[in-house]
């Protein structure tokens, strides 16, 4: 076979990865997207493979994360000469992981096929990326399957990383079985089925588990249900915090809520993140909210608002909060724990002062610590505010602490009319499956919706439209293996790389000795 040009091969993987992501939505392409990159790794030395892997990763994330320019520019009021470098730097950082992956594949493939090494390395790198620099696990490869319930049920065992593992495993298996795997020596080619058969068995076992678990959970969902309503106020980000618009915005939310409740009474009403653009403790409009909505309709409300506390030294601490509002007023609170860097706080403010205009738009928030769910009747709502839905540990911990419902309140108006809202929504689907909890999502400009414990999307709203949704959704109580034990799987992948690398290194040294 004629050698393909590295640049075209790297570009092809970048295009396939992007097309498989939420937005374009061709998730089936993920199962073969890495084939061009693996071909490149077998034909290039590790240093060259790393370079082209970086190019592929950089181009992919440049297309995936282009909305960063909208967030920082249109709504953060930063000039293009700052927003464009920010996007380039973030895409370059994300591209480094694909560079490491490619270098390791190039180094190992002369000794072993990538059937097992590729998924181990990929998942390990994803896990590290979710931890470094406060973590940015945005759109790991497994999220490309969010529309396919028959594929994602295994997440209740090993989290979304298990889906990523299977995707990369299939890519590695296809590559190993292709005639173009020219880097394999004669002995390896004759033994490739020794690698392929266990991989096929694992894929078959995962398929059986997915099928059986989907059927089982679908049956369990009939036991206990609650009625919920989510409200999508559709308030433009540049209008949201203007004091002259506050009363009108609140009135719109109350009117929408009354329409939703007249269509179907709800056990809990849910509004988005900072739907109240004021601190309820000392604002006169909060009393109107309780009188006109809570008392009149005999309903409890979970909504977002900024809150503050004052310590004994008169120091004020501001939080991005989730409030449970009842006829008594604020009945319970959740303070957001994982804040958005440069959006809700400035990391290393003495070294990185330039993004202050963006932070001043939102306020400089502090992080909360408690994962305790907010209780309303039989509902124990584990609250995830905005960006928190991309971190599996936060959802897992609140379920461990008793949550029988996950609620994601968010303000995705920052993303504008980009593919980011559907990317964000796709990650919430996996939080429902991992923990076997229904998830209700209220987003200011969308996507709002309901997801059942199998990951099926019961209902969702359009973007940038004033909207409400009603649904009767199941409440499950049992803890999944993932809810109990968390990220054992990616940690195991990291540990397994140690003996794998030692064996590969020993075999490479042995091969060098034989050639001498």
Task: Tell me briefly what this model is.
The chain has helices spanning 6-20, 35-43, 46-64, 68-75, 80-108, 114-129, 149-152, 155-158, 160-177, 186-190, 192-220, 237-240, 246-263, 284-297, 356-362, 392-400, 420-435, 481-485, 488-515, and strands at residues 225-232, 268-270, 301-310, 316-326, 329-335, 374-376, 379-385, 405-410, 439-443, 449-451, 457-460, 467-474. By secondary structure, it is of the alpha/beta class.
Structure description:
With 516 residues, the protein is α/β, with parallel strands linked by helices. The protein folds into 2 domains: 6-219 and 490-515, no CATH class; 221-485, Nitrilase/N-carbamoyl-D-aminoacid amidohydrolase. Helices cover 50% and strands 15% of the residues. It is built from 19 helices and 12 strands. It has helices at 6-20, 35-43, 46-64, 68-75, 80-108, 114-129, 149-152, 155-158, 160-177, 186-190, 192-220, 237-240, 246-263, 284-297, 356-362, 392-400, 420-435, 481-485, 488-515, and strands spanning 225-232, 268-270, 301-310, 316-326, 329-335, 374-376, 379-385, 405-410, 439-443, 449-451, 457-460, 467-474. A 6-stranded mixed β-sheet has the order 5-4-3-2-1-12. Strands 6-7-8-9-10-11 form a 6-stranded mixed β-sheet, covered by helices on one side. Helix 5 (80-108) packs antiparallel against helix 6, helix 13 (246-263) packs parallel to helix 14 and helix 16 (392-400) packs parallel to helix 17 (420-435). The two termini are 29 Å apart. 51% of the residues are buried. The mean pLDDT is 91.
Task: Summarize the SSE layout with pairings.
Elements: H1 6-20, H2 35-43, H3 46-64, H4 68-75, H5 80-108, H6 114-129, H7 149-152, H8 155-158, H9 160-177, H10 186-190, H11 192-220, E1 225-232, H12 237-240, H13 246-263, E2 268-270, H14 284-297, E3 301-310, E4 316-326, E5 329-335, H15 356-362, E6 374-376, E7 379-385, H16 392-400, E8 405-410, H17 420-435, E9 439-443, E10 449-451, E11 457-460, E12 467-474, H18 481-485, H19 488-515
Parallel strand pairs: 1-2, 2-3, 7-8, 8-9
Antiparallel strand pairs: 1-12, 3-4, 4-5, 6-7, 9-10, 10-11
